[in-house]
Amino acid sequence: MSLSEIPKKFTQILKKNGAEDVASLLFVEDVKTIRYANNQSTTIYNISRAELDTYVGLSKKIFVGGLEDLSDQALENFAERIMTSIKYSKQSEEYAPLPSGTFKYRPKRRPDKRLFNIDDKEFVEFIERVINTSLEYGAKRNAGILNLKRFKIFLNTSTGIDASDEIWRIELSNRAFADSDATGHWVSCASSLDNFNPEEVGRISAELAKMSMNARSIEPGKYDTLFGPMIFANLVSDYGSAASAFAVDAGFSFFANKNYK
Questions:
Q1: pLDDT tens by residue, 1-39
Q2: What are the tens digits of pLDDT across the range 55-110?
Q3: Which pTM value belongs to this model?
Q4: What residues contact residue 192 under an 8 Å CB cut-off, 6+ apart?
Q5: CA-to-CA dists, residue 231 to 182, 187, 235, angstroms
Q6: Among candidates 50, 91, 88, which has minimal Cα distance to 67?
Q7: Element of type H or E holding 109
Q8: What is the DSSP letter of 256?
Q9: Which of 121-127's residues contact partners 24+ apart within 8 Å by CB, and which partners?
C-alpha cells in the first residue's frame, strides 16, 4: 500500500468501527539539512518522516490525535483506541459535522522545479555565499542552518473529500558574530530560488551584529519599542495559533476561558 492510500484506508477503518465524522490527514516530510559554525560547514544529513493525523466525531464527541507507525496492525489498533476514548469523552457544546461536497481553491504556484535538483555541492555553495557576504560586511564568524524541505499532504474525509498537495521550500538562518557579545540574526525563506537571497542574509545579519557592539545599560522606565520584522512575525505566529477555535476549545490557547466584547 502506498503512502497516498493510507488516509482513505484509515477513514474506512474508522467508519467501519462506527465513527460518524472522520478526517484523515497524512503529512510526509523530507528534509535535507546542512549546519555550519565558525565559518565552516559541519554536517549534512537527510530526514524523512510521515505522520497520520485524524479528527473523529461521534455523537457530538470529538477525538484528535496522530500516529507515526503506519503499519496495517498499528492503524487497526489506533482506530480501536480512538473509539474507546470517544466512548468515555464528554460531548462538545460547539460540535459541528464536517462539511460535505466539493470545494474550489484559488490556483497556487507549482513548486519550483529547480529546488528538486539542488545537489550537495550547490547546497554548500549557498552557505559559502552567506558567510563570505557576512565577512565582507564586518562579521568575524558565522553559524547557522540551511534546510531544503518537501512536504506532501494527503487528505481523506468521510464526507467524500480526497485531495493532495505538495510544498517545497528552502530556509536559511544565519547568526553573525561581530564579537563575543555582539550578534545579529537574519533569515531567507522561499518557495522559489528567485526569492532566495543568501547574500542579503549575510549582509543584514552582519550589519545587525555590528550595531549591537558596545551595548550599554539604560535606566529602568517606560520606553517606546520598535519591533523588527522577525520579532513581530513570531508574535503574530503565536497569536494566530492561539486564535484557532480548536486551540481555544481544547484549552491549548491563552484565549481559553476568556470573555471578550
A1: 789 999 999 999 999 999 999 999 999 999 999 999 999
A2: 999 999 999 999 999 999 999 999 999 999 998 898 988 788 998 877 777 777 77
A3: 0.83
A4: 109, 112, 114, 115
A5: 18, 12, 7
A6: 50
A7: none
A8: T
A9: 123/32, 123/34, 123/44, 123/148, 124/34, 124/41, 124/44, 126/172, 126/198, 127/34, 127/36, 127/41, 127/198
Amino acid found at 148? L
User: DSSP string spanning 63-101?
Assistant: EEEEES--SHHHHHHHHHHHHHHHHTSPPPTT--PPP-S
Neighbour-count burial for 55-76, b at 16+ CB within 10 Å, e otherwise: bbbbeebbbeeebeebeeeebe
| Residue given cell 530526514 in the structure block | 47
| Angle in degrees, 0-180, between the axes of helices 72-87 and 6-16, rounded to the nearest 10 | 40
C-alpha cell, 118: 539542488
The three three-digit cell numbers of residue 24, written as one number: 484523515
Report CA-CA distances (Å) from 238 to 134, 181, 187, 189, 230: 30, 28, 19, 19, 13
CB-CB neighbours of 46 under 10 Å: 9
Q: Which residue has the higher pLDDT, 252 or 41?
A: 41
Q: List the one residue out of 96, 9, 89 whose CA is nearest residue 54.
A: 9
The C-alpha cell at 198 is 543568501
CB atoms within 10 A of CB 213: 12
CA triple 140-142-144, angle to 5 deg: 170
Identity at 60, one-letter amino acid code: K
